[in-house]
Structure formats: structure tokens, C-alpha cells
Design goal:
Helix content is 43%, strand content 19%. The protein is of the alpha/beta class. The chain has one domain (55-282): Rossmann fold, CATH 3.40.50.300. This is Septum-promoting GTP-binding protein 1.
């Protein structure tokens, strides 16, 4: 009888030990799977980083204030005492502050022409072009600080909405663009705005009407209607409104100066202009 109890007790202990071993094995198996999954995700993340940084954006060197340097001309062609554009050559990027700006809007409205007018033809050659996305850089000196705008231009097709998250995340300003001669592109701005705000709710919103040189050829009553609608949209988006022309460099530089002044609290202001037939600026 005693032998039977001893045997049962040993069997029970053995069963408990087996259960513990089983639990340990299960936990170890789960731990291994988690480790493998974590390593896999890390590998994917590193691949993404490698792909996103495989193109080296190099910034043009800012010459010393004691040397001759080209100034970033405004729309009037006058020098801006607070801003200096980049010149030829390269320098270390250690003192460079990079800021992201996004451009959204329908296709065929002049977004790329607007961007090339601002950054210059040479920078266009170095631009990073991906499916549905174009990235260009502009480097300048603001009160002694080197600032680089990295500008993300999203293609206008609706399938390019997939690029909106990467283009808008962490952007300091978003330009919502439309063709002043095509009202439907103004209506589309609302959809671009809603999509962008899913990923960025703090960026400075700016509504930009393009092709002003074609717009002024329209009858005055149509111009008045478009101006009224554009101002209403700008109020709805809580955005500053600019009419621009890449062809004649109207308000192109001024828009980016406005962004810099807002970001860095610079002593530069823009004058409001609501005169029909002139490039509208409303805020």
C-alpha cells in the first residue's frame, strides 16, 4: 500500500514536472517566434531606410559673408537682406537645417513648372524622381543660418494618393495648388486637403493658384467669380491665398519667403492684394 502511494506520488511529481517543462517549451517557442518576427521587421525597416537614403541629396555651399555671393532675388528682382540663395560647390551638411514642404494638386496644373522656377534648372537635374513623387532641394542662408527646403511634389493622379503620407508627414508647410483657368482643380483641393490632414495637422496651409498669365486673359466677370471662389476656399482651409505664374515668376519666390517668415519670425511681411486683374494675395 505504501509502495503504491509512493509510486502515485512520484507519478504526480513527474506529471507536474512534465507540465512545467511543456510550459517552458511553449514560452521558449513563442519567444523564438517573437524574436524571429522582430528580426524580420528590423530587416524590413533597414531595407526601407537603405532605399530611402540611397540617393544622396547634396546641398550647394553657402559662401562666406565676406565673399561675393548671389542673393535670392524676390519677385521684384531686389535683394532680400535676410536670405541668400545657394551657389556652386558643396560643403559639409553638419550645420544645415532641413525643412520639408509638400505640394499637392491635380495633374497638368503647373506644379512642376512652379517648383523648377523656384529651385532652378540645375537642381531639377539632381532631383529624386519616383513613381508619383518628385523631390527637389533648395538651400539658402537666413540670417546666418543654412536652411534647406526639401520640396515633395506629388503627382496629380488620384492613384498618387498613396504617396501623400510620405510626402506630408513632418512637413512644415503644404502648398495646395490649382489651375486658375480650371475651376474643377480648385474643387479638387478639398480632397487633397482632407487626405493630407490625415497625416499632418500642423503644417502651414497655402492655397496657390497657378497660370496667372493665362487667367488675366479671361473676361473680368469670370476673373471676379474665380477670385471670389478661391478666397472662399482659402478661408475654409484657413490658408493664405496666392495667385502665381511660373512662366513670369509671379509670386513664386514670395510664397517661399512667406513660409520662411512664418517659420522663423522674420521681419518680412507680405501686402494683401485683392485687385481684380492683379496677382491676388489674401490672408
Amino acid at each position: 500500500m505504501a509502495t503504491q502511494k509512493s509510486h502515485d506520488g512520484a507519478t504526480g511529481k513527474m506529471a507536474q514536472l512534465c507540465r512545467k517543462i511543456l510550459h517552458v517549451n511553449i514560452r521558449w517557442s513563442i519567444s523564438q517566434k517573437i524574436t524571429v518576427l522582430r528580426q524580420f521587421l528590423c530587416l524590413i525597416w533597414h531595407r526601407i531606410l537603405v532605399c530611402s537614403t540611397r540617393y544622396n541629396f547634396r546641398y550647394r555651399r553657402i559662401l562666406s559673408p565676406r565673399r561675393n555671393r548671389s542673393t535670392a532675388a524676390g519677385d521684384s528682382g531686389q535683394e532680400d537682406p535676410t536670405t541668400t540663395s545657394s551657389s556652386s560647390g558643396y560643403d559639409s551638411d553638419s550645420d544645415l537645417v532641413s525643412l520639408k514642404i509638400s505640394i499637392l494638386g491635380d495633374s497638368q496644373i503647373g506644379k512642376t513648372s512652379f517648383l523648377v522656377k523656384y529651385v532652378g534648372d540645375e537642381e531639377e537635374k539632381r532631383s529624386l524622381q519616383m513613381k508619383g513623387l518628385n523631390v527637389m532641394d533648395k538651400t539658402m542662408c537666413i540670417q546666418g543660418a543654412r536652411i534647406a527646403f526639401r520640396i515633395w511634389d506629388v503627382a496629380g493622379e488620384k492613384r498618387s494618393f498613396d504617396q501623400v503620407p510620405i510626402a506630408c508627414k513632418d512637413a512644415v508647410a503644404i502648398l495646395f495648388m490649382f489651375d486658375l483657368t480650371s475651376r474643377c482643380t480648385l474643387t479638387s483641393v478639398v480632397e487633397w486637403y482632407r487626405e493630407s490632414r490625415k497625416w499632418n495637422q500642423t503644417a502651414i496651409p497655402i492655397l496657390v493658384g497657378t497660370k496667372f498669365d493665362d487667367f488675366v486673359q479671361l473676361p473680368p466677370d469670370i476673373q471676379w467669380t474665380i477670385v471670389t471662389q478661391a478666397r472662399a476656399y482659402a478661408r475654409g482651409l484657413k490658408a493664405t491665398l496666392f495667385f502665381s505664374s511660373a512662366k513670369h515668376n509671379i509670386n513664386v519666390n514670395k510664397i517661399f519667403k512667406f513660409i520662411m517668415a512664418k517659420l522663423f519670425n522674420l521681419p518680412w511681411t507680405v501686402d494683401r492684394n485683392l485687385t481684380i486683374g492683379e496677382p491676388i494675395i489674401d490672408f
